[in-house]
Amino acid sequence: MRNSMLKFRRSTALLAALLTALLSTQAFAAQTIVTLYKNLQCTCCEDYVKYLEEEGLRVEVKPVRDLHAIDQKAGVPEALEGCHTSFIDGYVVIGHVPVGVIHKLLAEQPKIIGISIP
Length: 118
Description:
The protein is of the alpha/beta class. It has helices at about 1-30, 45-55, 65-75, 100-110; strands at about 35-40, 60-65, 85-90, 90-95, 115. Strands 2-1-3-4-5 form a 5-stranded mixed β-sheet, with helices on both faces. A hairpin with a 2-residue loop joins strand 3 (about 85-90) and strand 4. The N and C termini lie far apart (about 60 Å).
């Protein structure tokens, strides 16, 4: 009886830890809102938006005529500009940056404007 109770407690503790990790990851993703500005003629942005949403991020897409002006206002060097610019929790994210890198950026919160894969 003692062994079965010990196994039950371990199993319950393991299950609780797994559920906590899963729920905290989903809660983190659900709270993260991406505002993505894109050039009107760009089509690759839709694939990136789909990727972000599949990874659990909420994305608000804003097609614009002058993305360069948005990048300038955000302090993005011209050499790092791309066809879309995202704003995520105060950071600028340019290009098809993987979600894992975005999560790392948000977790570590370095003192930078943002990241870019032009």
